[in-house]
Amino acid sequence: MSERVGDDDERRGVRTFTPDFLTELFRNPLDPGYEDAAQARARRGGSPRPGWTVSPVSLVLIVLLGFLCAVAYRQTTAEESGRAQARSGLVAQIKQRQADTDAMSERADQLRDEVNRQREAQLSGSQASRLRNLAASTGLGRVRGDGVVVRLEDGPSGQDGLGGANVGPSQVLYSDLQGVANDLWGAGAEAIAINGQRLTATSTIRNAGQAILVDFRPVTGPYEVSAIGPRSMRERYEASRSALTMRKVAQDTGLSFGVRQVDDLTLPAAPEPRLRYAEPAVSPSVSPSGGGSPSPSGGGR
């Protein structure tokens, strides 16, 4: 059904549309004003689009900017070989020093065994036995016996929660190793080592960035916490807080956690500790007048 535009509407200037409006819109999408402007420009003989004009100052700036970019690129490519050579030299030094450290550690172990043999040769049987027991209990002697091994390993990368629970990342944290070691001590462990690093009364387990340090020595996964102790140690540890927590974390994040009984474990001795002893502070000197005020060298505030 069509509508007719009335004369009154035309005289009043009322805008009305016929059913052919959509057809006309798709047929002539360009606004008539643009078309009129293009025709007027063509009659004047002008170009459809004005050309670009560059001032001399702009041209100089463009040339200078291009020159600076070329110089920077040339310097960067020229220094790349020097940086690569310096990097390879540093890597070689690190590997060499690591090898030297391993050799010195092995030599230190040999000398320690030789010292122990010489010491026992000079002591009587009871004294040597007592010394071995003290060394084993303090971590300064190698021990052997039945025990438990707790194994922890990082989960798949990028997998922070299988069950949607907020239980932390799927990587083993230093606090996890702390909890395992403490609960093993509580379960009756007599000697503990983490990846071959023997724990003593002064041992520390901490992190430095993404690395885990045991007595300032880095350890990498999988992590094995080995403990020597009585037969009941495994059962007591299985009921500990760290074991229950780690099983929950393993279930929710994909982290690997396991406990197994092992016969005939051997744990190495810990390095000789560097003990520092406290000394009494020197009391401030008293002035000859007897007033009790400290002298300038006494450190008074």
Automatic annotation (TrEMBL):
Coiled-coil portions: 94-121
Gly residues bias: start-end ranges: 289-301
Gene3D superfamilies in the record: Protein of unknown function DUF881
A Gene Ontology cellular-component term: plasma membrane
Transmembrane segments: 51-73
Entry protein name: DUF881 domain-containing protein
Pfam family, one: DUF881
Domain of life: Bacteria
Species per Swiss-Prot/TrEMBL record: Micromonospora maris
Similarity comment: family membership: Belongs to the UPF0749 family.
Region (Disordered): 277-301
Keyword line: Coiled coil, Membrane, Transmembrane, Transmembrane helix
